[in-house]
Amino acid sequence: MKKRIVSLLLVLVLAFTLVPSAFADTSDCGLAGCTCSGYCSYAYYNYRPNDEDTHFYGVYCTGCGIGGGVVLEGSHTFSGNTCTLCGYTKSSGGGGGGWEPDYCYHDWTYREWDGCYWYEFCEDCGDLVDMGVSHGVTVYDDWEYYNRSEHRRYAYCRDCGEGEYEYDWHDTREEYEQYTSTQHRVVDYCSTCDSNVGTATYASHSFSYGSWQNYNGTQHRRTKTCRDCGYSSYDYANHSFSYGSWTNSSDTQHRRTKTCNTCGYSTYEYADHADTNGDGLCDGCSKELTVYVDVTLDACGGVLEDESVTVIFGNTYGELPEPTREGYTFDGWYTEKDGGELVEAGTEVSDKTAHTLYAHWTLTKVFSVTVPASLPLAVTEDGVVTSSTDAAIANNSTCDVRVTGISLRTENGWTLVPFEYNMAGAKVDSKLIGFAIGGAQSVDNGDSETLVLTGDWSIDAGSTLPLDYDANVSATSVGINEQVLTVVFVVEEVN
C-alpha cells in the first residue's frame, strides 16, 4: 500500500506539468520518450476515484506505449449513484462512499514489448490486462500478376515485417507491340501491374516513311516506322542518276557529275579520253589529246632485253633497242613479219593503236680463218731475229672477210714494243717484239697490247694477209721456235 501512495504522489506531480500539452495534439502525443515520430495518439486507462467529486486516470501513447504513470484528473460521470468510469459509489446519505470496488482496478500496469506487439500486466495482481498491436508505417510492394482477373501486392509493417497480400481487379488497356518485320500484335495489358492479361491479335504494320538519304555509292535508304507499334526499319533502293557534261580531269581521263534524282547524292563518273574520229580531240570533253601508243617489239628468234616501248602519236619512234641472234645480222624493225615498212628512229608514229614491230634478220655465212699458233724465229749472229716467210692470216672460207679487231698477248717472257722501236739500242739480253699487219703497227699505249686499225682490212676468200714483226734477243741465242705472241683476230663477212 505504501508503494501505491508514493507512486500516486509522483503521478500527481507529473500530471500538473503534462496536462497542457497532452490535449493539444492528437497526432503526436508529446509524451517524453515517445519514439513514434508523429504516428501516435493518446489513450486513457485506469480510472480511479479521487474523492466524491473527482477521479484521476492515466494516459499512454498508442504507438509506442510510453506514458504509463502520467495522471490526469476529471469529474465523476454518474449513472445513478455509480461513476461509469471509476466505479465510485455515492452513499445513500450523500456522504463519501466506497471508492474501492471488490475487484482489482489494475491501477498500475507495466508493458512488455515484442516487436510491434505489447502486453500490459497489472502490477498489483499480475493479471494480463490488455494485449494489442501497434504496427508502424505500412510498406507496399509493387502490384504483381496473380491470375487472369486479379493482381496483388504485399503490404507489411516497416518495423516487424508482418503483412499480408492485398488483391484487386485488373484494369486493362490495349497495347501494340512489334512481332515480326511485317506484323505487330495487339495485347491486353493491366495498367496497374503491367501484365499481359489477354489474347493477342495480329495485324500487318502500317508504315510511315522518312525521306531518302544516301547510304553508299550505289544505294539510298529511308526509315519506315509503324504508326501503331513503333517498329522501325529501313527501305533500300538503287540510286537513279542524272548526268552532267564531261569535263577534262587529267591527261588520260575526263569526268562528269552524276546526281541521284531521289536522295540528291552526288559524285563523279570518270572515263578515259577517246578519239574515234582521229581529229586529235577527245570525243567527250574535246581536250586536245596526247596519245600514248604501246609498241610491242617481236625479236623473231632474237634476244631482246626490253620487249616493248611507249611512243607518242605524231612524234617519231626514236632509237629502238636492237636484238641479237647468233649466226644472224639484224636488218632493222619492220611493220610486218615478212615485208612491211622499215621503222627507223626518225619514222613518225602514224598508228594510234597499240601495234607490233618485227625484227628482220640476214643469215651470216660460215667462214674460217687460220692464224699461226707460233711464230718461227731465226736469230743471226748479230742478234737480229727474222721470221719465216709464210707468217700470215689465211682465209679458208668461201667468202671475203673483214678484220674488225686485233688483240695481242705476249708469251714466254717476250715484251711488245712499238714496231719502229730502236732495236739496235736495246739491251743484248732483251726479248722484244714489234708487230705489224697491213699497215697497222703495235703501239705503246701503256695499258694494253693492241693494234690500231686504219683503212679497210679485208681478206679475200682463199687468200692470206702477211704478218710483219721485228724482234731482238741475245746475240748468243740460237735459233728460236717458240710461242712469243698470241694474236686474236675479229673478222666478219664482207657482203
Summary keywords:
Immunoglobulin-like, single chain, five-stranded mixed β-sheet, 495 residues
Main beta sheet: 5 strands, mixed
What overall form do the CA principal axes indicate? Answer: elongated
Write out the strand line-up for the largest beta sheet, numbering strands in chain order.
25-24-28-26-27
Coarse structural class:
mainly beta
Secondary structure: number of strands? 41
Ends apart, CA distance between termini:
168 Å
Fraction of residues in helix: under 10%
Q: How many helices?
A: 1
Q: Enumerate the spans where pLDDT stays under 50 for 5 or more consecutive residues.
A: 1-27, 92-102
Name the average pLDDT: 75
Describe what you observe in this structure.
It is a single chain. The protein is mostly beta strands and 495 residues long. Among the domains are: 132 residues, no CATH class; 72 residues, Sandwich (Immunoglobulin-like); 125 residues. It is built from one helix and 41 strands. The strands form twelve sheets. The chain has a five-stranded mixed β-sheet, with no helix packed on it. Strands 9, 10, 11 and 12 form a four-stranded antiparallel β-sheet that branches. Strand 1 and strand 2 form a beta hairpin. The termini are far apart. The N terminus is likely disordered.
